[in-house]
Design goal:
It is a single chain. The protein is mainly α and 88 residues long. The chain has one domain. The protein is built from two helices and no strands. The radius of gyration is 21 Å and the shape is rod-shaped. Keywords: Cytoplasm, Exonuclease, Hydrolase, Nuclease. Its EC number is 3.1.11.6. Heterooligomer composed of large and small subunits.
């Protein structure tokens, strides 16, 4: 007899990769899926809270990625302006 069970059916701490290891795109996509799951409203309160907390962490990670990108753009523009002033 073979065991066709692929998991215990229980989510654990390691069920999701750490948020800080996700790229912007990965965090955004997971956030979209998390919102869809929460909108279904078919989980217990504890499960819903875990997804809500994960969603909050994902949203913050996305915000941090975007802030970092904005800072890099501002620095690039500033460096370009500095270079143009030196050339004149």
């Amino acid at each position: 007899m073979t065991n066709d069970t692929f998991g215990s059916g229980q989510t654990g701490q390691d069920a999701f990769p750490p948020v800080e290891e996700l790229s912007y795109e990965q965090a955004r996509d997971e956030l979209i899926e998390t919102v869809k799951i929460l909108e279904l409203g078919q989980m217990s309160l504890d499960e819903s809270l875990k997804y809500w907390e994960r969603g909050e962490a994902l949203a913050k990670a996305c915000e941090n990625h975007l802030d970092g990108a904005a800072k890099r753009v501002e620095e690039a523009i500033g460096n370009k302006d500095d270079q143009e002033e030196e050339d004149n």
